[in-house]
Amino acid sequence: MPSPLPTGLSRRGFIGGATGTAVAALATGPSASAHTRPSHPGNGRPRNRPVNVIFVSIDDLGHDELGAYGNTFNETPNIDRLAREGALFTNAYAAAPLCSPTRAALVTGRYPARSGITDFLRGENAASAKYLSPAVPTAPDVLGPFGYATGLIGKWHLTETYSGPYAERPGNPFAHGFGEVIASEEKYIADGDYFHPYFFLPELEAREPGEHLTDRLAAEAVDYITRHRDEPFFLHVSNYAVHTALDGKPDLVAKYQAKPGAASAPNRPVLAAMLESVDDQVGRIAGALAELGLAQDTLLLIASDNGGPYRDANQPLRGGKGELYEGGIRVPMIAHWPGRVSPGRRIDAPVSTIDVLPTALDLAGGRPGRQFDGVSITPLLTGTGSLGRDELYWVYPHFIGATHPHAAVRSGRYKLVRYLRDGRSELYDLVRDPGESTDISDRHPGRTRILRGRLEAHIAEVGILPPAPEAGAYPVRELDERFDGDLADWSVLPVTGHAGDVAVTGGQLSVRSDRLTHLVFRSGITPGSDTAVAVLSPGRFAESGTQDTVFVGVAKDAGNYLLFRYHNGLNRVGWDLRVNGQLITAGAEPLNNLDGTVDLTAPGARYAFVLHGTKSTAYADQGDGWEYLFTADTGGALDLSDPVVRGQYRWATSVRIDSGTLTLDGFTAHSARG
After folding, report:
1. pLDDT at res. 674
2. What digits encode the pLDDT tens for the residues 200-220?
3. Residue 461: what are its φ and ψ, rounded to 5°?
4. Cα(584)–Cα(577) distance, integer angstroms
């Protein structure tokens, strides 16, 4: 049986919210907050109370899918009304082009790189086992001292652990101090589920027959607002909709299928049906605030967590989910705050998900400072000032679909996109060219140089990538093997049944075989710190055979290693993680993007394995200097940041061939210690 949840919160309260008579009791009883002020005689509520903040996130909503942003097929009357009564942002950005890092940014006020969450988190079988560390301050830490209740209703997606008691899982929202966590996924969400019983919420009992998940979140949000009406609160209503696989209420789907243009892009009847349910949810939340007399005391924000996956739903913006072009990160956002935000405001200043928590702290009476990357947007909402911020940054060092690792900076009207592998930069004028159709970097070399320098400085500051091998960050030499002697200090470990012939002659290590051979050469040197680099200089590949592969990394024995591979026949790079003899590939990025683009046959070519905590990064030198290739996070299966674990491993190289002779020219290793 699962262990109990934190004191005072039942399992029903965790996954389903209090229901029935429990709701009535909680709704009528006053909150025991030490920060509650004397009640106003007219309404029974505290006077001059801090402002509540409700953030409603819509998963994967495209920039142009709300009526307020010009969509004429989808019907979102409640959200559109809030936009007319409040403010509509024309340059609102997600902190990342995917959901998990944006969610981390929302609750921390920091860029994703500082939270450690830079990509969407995988299921429990992923090698990384990532999670948002409770050591990173989040909304409850920031707002709790000001008497705020904090709640999460819906999607969390900030852990890769989905077994064991929920409240004991690494990075769960209770560990971050959230007082109530309702209908948050217990299992990996995969392609979603929108009708009860929900496969990722196996313990969530339905409140009504045929329950729809978006409606359930709406009911829970109304109950939460009612329970906490006499104290300030921060509430994230985190929708699973409109994430794929799309699945709407049948009657609403039929309604949109019958509309003119239903079969024409970008119209999607099922998505429209799901979005109408989200719109109803927002209407119920706004209605509850008005009925309880809380509307003027509550900042209600509605936004998407990233750009839409359907590129035609982001037009005229370029790209979509997973990209740092505008279609992947510019999102719809609406603010409603009666009496504080003038009706019909249009706010053009760039804002980001990182600004939500600093804004909440500002409204609580605190002073947002350097603990955040974001700033308070209150001056924009109230029309009393500007943000005083020059740039916004994004770093996405991952592969997804056809997208390669890249980064971006927006400064005023200009935006620079930089690809991490080769340093190629593109510059766009977002005022004249919001669709980023024309790269103007050649026309503005000075501006390009300045923004590139600022972006590179940001990447270095957040420490998301280890320096390339020649960047001077690895001053301590640990190993310098030119293969000019014997292999007395190396262990030769067969992975396959045949070992071939091994020799050291003429400054080269050679392996000759007439059948499949895979050997690991393990040195006697362990990496001296968790920031270190090993560089392999390949020699000559066999003239025949299809398995010609060289490896560089670390090994414990033939059944335990982390090696970066280069396959000469396919010009392919990747990584092999083997633990207790089992090859672990779950959660790996689609590195086939790099197939055919790396050639290590030229004289002086090199391949590098850079250890950096739980992550390891590959660089290659094809003759023109070091190029970033990819990063592998193996902390869930092999945590080389742990000195005890690292001490069991040694620098290693490896060879796999099926026929002929393959040689290696040299192997060096350095660390950053000392």
Report:
1. 58
2. 999 999 999 999 999 999 999
3. -65, -45
4. 6
- What tokens were used for 97? 């082009």
The C-alpha angle 235, 369, 382, rounded to 5 degrees, equals: 60
Cα gap 231→34, rounded to integer Å: 10
Give kind and range of the element (H or E) at residue 448.
helix 445-462
- Alpha carbon distances (Å) from 235 to 140, 159, 341: 10, 20, 20
Q: Which token pair is 255?
A: 């309604």
Q: What amino acid occupies position 49? A: R
Spatial CB neighbours of 610, under 8 Å, sequence gap ≥ 6: 466, 467, 468, 469, 532, 533, 616, 617, 618, 619
Cβ contact 163:174 at 8 Å:
no
Instruction: Kindly give the interhelix angle for 213-227 and 21-28, rounded to the nearest 10 degrees.
Output: 40
What is the Cα–Cα distance from 82 to 73, expressed in whole angstroms? 19
Q: How does pLDDT run across 279-291, given as a tens digit for each residue?
A: 999 999 999 999 9
DSSP string, 36-48: PPPBPTTTSSBTT
Beta-carbon neighbour count of residue 382 at 10 Å? 14
The number of helix segments (H) and strand segments (E) in the chain equals: 14, 28
Which tens digits make up the pLDDT trace of 638-652?
999 999 999 999 999
CB 572 within 8 A of CB 594: yes
Handedness of CA 12, 13, 15, 20 (dihedral sign): positive
* DSSP string for 408-443: EEEETTEEEEEETTT--EEEEETTT-TT-----TTT
Quote the tokens at residue 619.
């660089």
Average pLDDT over residues 597-619: 96
Checking if the pLDDT of 32 tops 60, the result is no
CA-CA distance, 430 to 330, in Å (whole number)? 12
- Report residue 494 as tokens: 């067969």
Residue 570's pLDDT band, with cuts at 50, 70 and 90, is very high
CA dist., res. 297 & res. 329, Å (int)? 30
Q: How far is CA 13 from CA 165, 169, 245, 273, 445, in A?
A: 15, 18, 28, 29, 58
- For residues 667 and 434, what is the distance between their CA atoms, to the nearest angstrom? 48
Please provide residue 569's backbone torsions phi and psi, each rounded to the nearest 5 degrees.
-65, -35
Rounded to 5°, the CA angle 341-351-143 comes to 75
Beta pairing class for 572-579 and 582-584: antiparallel
Residue 71: DSSP 8-state:
-
Q: In angstroms, rounded to a whole number, what is the distance separating the alpha carbons of residues 639 and 641?
A: 5
Take residue 444 and report the two structure tokens written for it: 């503005």
Q: How many residues does the chain have?
A: 674
